[in-house]
User: What shape does this take?
Amino acid sequence: MRDLYSDKAIVKDGVIPEEYVYTSKGYFPQVNGVLPPGGVFAHSAGEDLVQGEDGQWWVLEDNLRIPSGASYPLFVRDIERRISPTPFRDVRIRDNRAYPRLLRKSMDFVSTEGIAVVLTPGRQNAAFFEHSYLAEKTGAALAFPEDLEVVDNRVFFVDYAGKRHRVGVIYRRLADEFLDPFAFNPDSVIGIPGVLAAYRSGNVAIMNAPGNGVADDKAMYCFVPEMIRYYLHEEPILHNAPTYMPMFEKDRKVILDRLGELVIKDVAEAGGYGVVFGSSLGVREREEMAQRIVDEPRRFIAQEVIPFKDIDIVDPATGQRTPRKADLRAFVLTGQKTHVWYSGLTRYSARQGQMIVNSSQGGGFKDTWVLAPPQSEEYSKQRERDAVNLLDESSLSTPALVTATKADNLYWLGRYSERVFTTISQFSLFYDLVMDTQVEAFKPFARALDLPEDFQDFDTFIHSFLYDDGNPDSVRSAVHSAFNNAVVLRPELGSGLLQYVELAVSTIDDAAHGNGTSENIYRQRDITDHMLSLWGGVEDSALDPVLKAMLFIGKYLERVDLYSRFTVPASRMTAPLKKLAIYLGMLDGMPLPQGIVAGIQWLLGQLPLRGYGEVTEEISKFVIDPQSRVADPDVSTYNALNAMNMDAEH
Assistant: This one.
């Protein structure tokens, strides 16, 4: 990569034909002459390997852009340790928890000046779990594109109050084409305008380096053995799959003659897309593929089909052991030094006999156990170092930086979690009355929450109130809304706290799928326990007090709102009002997120209408002109997806 974007000696010396370089979709002249900070291009490389039935290992391809999948072995190993910890001691399996530390060391080595961020394209991305999980484990800030801006060729993370924080390294999880609309695709809405200029100026490191896609080109794969000989003067240890290049006349003839025996790959595709086995094609399809190869020889390569090994899996449909084709993605991390991770992602195919293992094609994954050597002094010392490293990593925490979006998420996590807790708790009181044959007793409860009161029977009401995800006022909708806000906060909350919301989702979904009725109403009390565990965990955590305050302000605003709806005595308002005053006091002198301001103003307008004038006056004592403290005074931009549905007119 360094050579290709500078002297291009390997091209000048004829080792790689220049047409393969300059016609590659992954080659970007915009980064010519750029040496990344620390001189590192491939900070995290994913090497896809298969083992043939004869035991020989083959390299299928290199992934040097944004290789994914490292979080899954980490997460599943944690589950395995809890379920059955003894094998990891008795079988002497290598500890795989070093990956976040190695990744963070690479971040720190190349960082220019400022904080580390993991850049995600958004919540809807298929790999968002990995983005948020790696941010949590490395102590980096999880950033959305709108959270970053470039000023004077420097990148800044912008918090909810508009304060800028310098960014030194970006672990990006979006493709080059979308990284900077000024430099690449001008239609990109998930990029950061100007970030390439900051990178070219040496003011920020980007992992992995822009332009690495030329090395991922499947045509470039064919030249890797020659690269090894050219640059290192060594012979390759691992073998490439025998590959044919249709741009060469001799290879093209072989491909066309043996099309039914080979596997054809589109050089610019990834994720298992663009892979066609000639044996699966009919006569007409084979003729069409042959013509495409003749018309676009640069677009394809052809390879011998390697009969690689099967491994046993447990078929989720039948529960039976069944063989599947599998490959191994090994991860190589580079900072000051290069490390091969003692783990990897073993992927298997969706169906028996299928050769494509990518998750995008329905494949699954298994944990990968790397065995330690027999007991030795070196191994004992390594275990001691691992223990020290784990203690160090446990103190890693995400910077206490909250963007406008995350301030909104914290606030609404507080509101929705409280809504779940209080509505279930209050409903239990009405439920007992209904069970005592007062079948109309649920109507005041429904009226308080603006729910319809004309249900045919009590079970119908329970289904709508508890389980109907099409009803925005149902408990299930509130649980899911709490989760949607919480999952974005994984780096701040940590997976340990997020799991309480996940448990609530699992409980309510299981009940809904089981045709929940009044007979299993008491199961919902588990959900209130999960909410209590969440709040207690947040209060007891190392989370920054400002972030805690935003969550609990939402929680107690919601409690006051719900209590006033249920017309509880004003004396019961004292405790939540005191809590609200305490948490608002923690933000004294600071600008308030727009969601909090909008929530306070809305509640102050509603309380007098419900007969709580004294409570309105009490809140007004410790909330003086919240509008003057709003971080973004344009409350018309307020996120409508988080709006309270209980008072919606449409």
